[in-house]
Design goal:
Length: 403
């Protein structure tokens, strides 16, 4: 690797340099932070997340916002030790971050991080992922990884090939898949009244709409584009108007305590909140090979950040909703597209299917609240790697900013 052209005295004069690998999953960035981030304190992953939020949030800002990031940046901080790596239930932990905070789950970053974890060279990253333990399936040439995400353990399968130096490396030609934590719809066809301050122009004379609520590691409100009043479907030219409409819908849901019941995580109060609004256009989208159908969607999360990817946790939430609402058989595979994959002729869509029900619900018919395991598939690619500095005398950029 090339040496830094900046004199070492400058590199080491400010905060510890932060090292990242940069990837994208259907256009959505993941800045994977593997060295230099302050060590989070706590014995559980959620305690470590709370510590990062309370004490190192400015470092999140530094890496996500300008001038090192931008308003749509996304990141993943690797955490070697969690309560579940200690028991062997997980291989490594991860804290997901965006421009306005942190995510309970992130499918696109799970795909990127898992590929990186298979590929990185332990000699160049000493201390990273010390319990690295590939479980290779030689028949399928895949390796398994258990990622401890804030929402729980996600089981990832990464296709591999034999690399030139006798080391396994990821196979960029085949999709990575993950089996998410239990996913379930919490609200089907919920009538949402929209009081005056929570309306937008495209609604016209309507004063309410119908939407669904579903969990895929994070809670999403899922709404058809026509319900929002956009009669011509999802169009990228309407992005600003869609952002204004979904922000109003999000605010209406957050303002009324009656909706809290739809966003209750069974065990973790920290995860009990509306994370994003996904606008669906069921009339568009090309199915990926082997899939039974497709739809296009657009996910707004955080401070109305736009997911470039089809949103992995949202795909799980949507497939769980289809199971509960329409009784789709488990093997029915659906391709979830974003604007980008739709514009690229279907390249980069995420495909989701049901791979199992919770054991205690195995014989029950589909219904709201029923927990299912969803497998989501997608691909991530490397775009680079970086060393980020913060000079001690730089009063502007240490915590990042949005212009
Ligand atoms: O793929 C996902 O699940 C996500 N992408 C950004 C917002 C969500 O966390």
């Amino acid at each position: 690797m090339a040496k830094s052209p900046i004199p070492q005295e400058i590199v080491s004069a400010g905060a510890v340099p932060i090292l990242t690998v940069e990837m994208h999953t259907t256009g959505e960035p993941t800045r994977i932070i593997y060295s230099g981030f302050p060590e989070p304190k706590g014995s559980t992953l959620l305690q470590k997340l709370a510590d990062v939020e309370a004490n190192h949030d400015h470092v999140r800002g530094r890496l996500m916002l300008e001038p090192r990031g931008h308003k749509e940046m996304y990141g993943a901080l690797l955490v070697n030790e969690t309560e579940l790596t200690a028991t062997g239930e997980a291989d490594i932990g991860v804290i997901f971050m965006h421009t306005a905070g942190y995510s309970p789950m992130c499918g696109h970053a799970t795909i990127a991080v898992s590929r990186f974890l298979v590929d990185f060279d332990p000699e160049t990253c000493p201390g990273l992922f010390p319990k690295r333990n590939f479980r290779l399936d030689e028949e399928t040439m895949t390796t398994a990884l258990k990622l401890h995400c804030p929402c729980g353990v996600v089981n990832v399968t990464v296709p591999v090939v034999n690399g030139p130096h006798g080391r396994l490396q990821s196979d960029p030609k085949r999709p990575i898949s993950f089996i998410n934590v239990d996913s379930y719809a919490t609200g089907i066809d919920v009538e949402i009244p929209l009081p005056e301050p929570y309306r937008w122009p495209e609604l016209g004379a309507r004063t309410s709409l119908t939407a669904d609520i579903s969990y895929g590691g994070a809670f999403y409100c899922l709404v058809d584009v026509e319900q929002l009043g956009f009669k011509d479907g999802l169009k990228s030219t309407d992005l600003d108007a869609l952002s204004r409409a979904t922000a109003k819908l999000r605010d209406a849901l957050k303002a009324d305590p009656r909706y809290k019941v739809y966003f209750q995580h069974p065990t973790e109060p920290e995860l009990s909140y509306l994370y994003g609004v996904i606008v669906r256009d069921p009339k568009r989208g090309v199915p990926a090979e082997g899939a039974d159908g497709a739809e296009v969607g657009l996910c707004f999360f955080g401070a109305q950040q736009v997911d470039r990817s089809p949103c992995g946790s949202g795909s799980a939430a949507r497939r769980a909703l289809a199971h509960a609402k329409h009784g789709w058989p488990p093997e029915k595979k659906w391709t979830y597209h974003c604007f980008l994959s739709d514009a690229c002729g279907g390249l980069g869509g995420f495909t989701a299917s049901v791979v199992g029900k919770s054991a205690d619900q195995a014989n029950e018919p589909p219904r709201a609240g029923e927990r299912v395991r969803i497998r989501v598939e997608g691909q991530a690619f490397y775009t680079g790697f970086a060393t980020f500095l913060a000079e001690a005398v730089d009063g502007i950029s240490a915590s990042g900013f949005v212009a």
